[in-house]
Automatic annotation (TrEMBL):
<feature type="domain" description="Transglycosylase SLT">
    <location>
        <begin position="28"/>
        <end position="317"/>
    </location>
</feature>
<dbReference type="Pfam" id="PF01471">
    <property type="entry name" value="PG_binding_1"/>
</dbReference>
<dbReference type="InterPro" id="IPR036365">
    <property type="entry name" value="PGBD-like_sf"/>
</dbReference>
<keyword id="KW-0732">Signal</keyword>
<dbReference type="InterPro" id="IPR043426">
    <property type="entry name" value="MltB-like"/>
</dbReference>
<dbReference type="InterPro" id="IPR031304">
    <property type="entry name" value="SLT_2"/>
</dbReference>
<protein>
    <submittedName>
        <fullName>Lytic murein transglycosylase</fullName>
    </submittedName>
</protein>
<dbReference type="Pfam" id="PF13406">
    <property type="entry name" value="SLT_2"/>
</dbReference>
<feature type="domain" description="Peptidoglycan binding-like">
    <location>
        <begin position="337"/>
        <end position="392"/>
    </location>
</feature>
<dbReference type="InterPro" id="IPR011970">
    <property type="entry name" value="MltB_2"/>
</dbReference>
<dbReference type="InterPro" id="IPR023346">
    <property type="entry name" value="Lysozyme-like_dom_sf"/>
</dbReference>
<dbReference type="InterPro" id="IPR002477">
    <property type="entry name" value="Peptidoglycan-bd-like"/>
</dbReference>
<dbReference type="InterPro" id="IPR036366">
    <property type="entry name" value="PGBDSf"/>
</dbReference>
<feature type="signal peptide">
    <location>
        <begin position="1"/>
        <end position="21"/>
    </location>
</feature>
Length: 392
């Protein structure tokens, strides 16, 4: 099952203007001419620019894919079970053995453990098998022209031009995900330019066909984004009865020792050093699984900004490193997409920042839910229920 990365949704109404002064939207041809002018102002050769944009076109299929990401509305247990199949577990372990020397190099050089790299490799492209069939240049220009997130995609066009100049991208033939990511680990052009590595020593970087290039480039990017070498990212825990749930969630950090003093215990193995900072997250409320997460967990949001995706990838990585299946518990019923939108609207009307009325339970909505639960005397675990919606 191919899960395309979700990118942060910043809703725009009407025309948005970039830092360079050109608006998104409007006539597509005029928009492309504006991109050409900006590329020239950045010092690119005019012939190179014309060749890069020679066959560019707007693709409705890209816009359709951007607006069709319903799986991210599923609760954690459903989402994780959909993504973490036995086949993926087996493939992950087989690839860990097959490319053990590459993963060892990634850990020695960048401090990124095999589980994390395997998890993203699995979720992004099923270990390279499904890399996407969207023309990369068309995808980036289409999304930059669209007024939902131009500030995200417009800069990627100029990184793609630089890739073309270096011989790393063919505007007519390079294909990947609908959001412009390329290769086995699905990276945007700016990250490729900044962090890609020639892992196999052949003198070129090929993220579509070379496993060493892909794995070491992913590790290089994570380290550059703040990954702490060889530190953990997540550990499943059990909560004591009577824990103040307002302390759970990514907004609160205590040391591991402080959490232990509050009665939080690992469900298996042992927790890291008592001085390490950590949060406790409850992706499906206090009756579902609980995880202690460490600074490296936050770094993963540099890869993808979906809370549900990152939590699932982090958990899958622990499984690939030997952790047992989570204790699923018995979570309370959640909300469907329409109910979630209603909840977000009601919270926004009360002044809470929910990060957009999109029907997705992201980090901002979770924090707002936790605050309103505390005000209403409900268990403040950030998990919205029909009861909460009725009370609002």
């Amino acid at each position: 099952m191919r899960i395309l990365p979700v990118l942060v949704a910043v809703l725009s109404f009407g025309l948005a203007t970039t830092a360079q002064g050109q608006s998104c939207g409007g006539n597509f041809g005029a928009f492309v001419e504006g991109l050409k002018s900006e590329a020239a102002s950045r010092g690119h050769d005019r012939t190179l620019i014309e060749n890069f944009f020679a066959n560019v076109r707007q693709e409705q299929s890209v816009l359709n894919a951007d607006r069709r990401q319903g799986i991210f509305q599923r609760p954690f247990l459903d989402f994780s079970r959909a993504l973490i199949s036995q086949n993926r577990m087996n493939a992950g372990r087989n690839n860990a053995n097959r490319y053990s020397s590459i993963f060892a190099t990634a850990q020695q050089t960048y401090g990124v453990q095999p589980g994390i790299l395997l998890a993203f490799w699995a979720f992004e492209t099923d270990f390279g098998a499904v890399q996407g069939d969207f023309n990369t240049v068309n995808a980036l220009v289409t999304l930059a022209h669209d007024c939902r997130r131009p500030e995200l995609f417009r800069p990627q066009i100029f990184s793609a031009i630089e890739m073309y100049r270096r011989g790393m991208l063919d505007p007519a033939r390079t294909r990947g995900a609908w959001a412009g990511e390329i290769g086995m680990v699905q990276k945007l052009p700016s990250d490729i330019i900044s962090h890609a590595v020639d892992g196999d020593g052949d003198g070129r970087i090929d993220l579509q066909n070379s496993v060493p290039d892909s794995i070491l480039s992913a590790a290089s990017m994570l380290r550059a984004k703040g990954w702490r070498a060889n530190e953990p990212w997540m550990h499943e825990v059990a909560l004591p009865g009577g824990l103040d749930l307002t302390q759970t969630g990514l907004r609160t950090e205590l040391t591991v020792s402080q959490w232990q003093q509050l009665g939080v215990r690992p469900t298996h193995g042992s927790l890291p050093s008592g001085n390490m900072r950590a949060s406790v997250i409850l992706p499906q409320g206090h009756r579902g699984p609980a995880f202690m997460v460490f600074p490296n967990f936050s770094t993963l949001f540099e890869w993808n900004q979906s809370f549900i995706y990152i939590t699932t990838a982090a958990y899958f990585a622990t499984r690939l490193m030997g952790a047992p299946v989570y204790q699923a518990g018995n979570p309370e019923q959640g909300l469907n997409q329409d109910q979630m939108r209603q909840l977000q609207q009601k919270l926004a009307q009360r002044g809470f920042d929910v990060g957009g009325i999109d029907g997705i339970l992201g980090s901002n909505t979770r924090a707002a839910v936790q605050d309103i639960q505390a005000q209403l005397g409900l268990p403040a675990d950030g998990w919205p229920t029909p009861q909460l919606l009725r009370m609002l």
